[in-house]
Amino acid sequence: MSEYRLEDLARISGVSARNIRAYRERGLLDSPRRVGRSAYYGERHLAQLTAISQLLAKGFNSAHIAEFFAGLRSGKDLSEASGSTRRTGADQTHRRST
């Protein structure tokens, strides 16, 4: 399993270190593994960043994405976790187009 420091994760994912920190603080990104003051991110974090970027590009906001990931973390299956997020995202799309 590969592990990345924050700067490496930012470079590989194309997401700025500042945004990675913000995603972590907002509950979108799982906490990294810590060894002393050093933080290490893995492939799971890279996959989460990819999903976050894709959802943001589709018009979902960070609150909806955090809700979606919280549902997955609490054991909901994908359709349960995405149900409220999908409706909310569709509502947003409708509101933007009117």
Automatic annotation (TrEMBL):
Q: Which residues form the HTH merR-type domain?
A: 1-71
The keyword DNA-binding is assigned to this record: yes
The record's annotation in Pfam families points to:
MerR_1
Report biased composition (Basic and acidic residues) as residue ranges.
88-98
Q: Single GO molecular-function term?
A: DNA-binding transcription factor activity
UniProt-listed PROSITE patterns: HTH_MERR_2
| Keyword terms | DNA-binding
**Region feature (Disordered):** 76-98
Q: Does the keyword DNA-binding apply?
A: yes
The molecule here is called MerR family transcriptional regulator
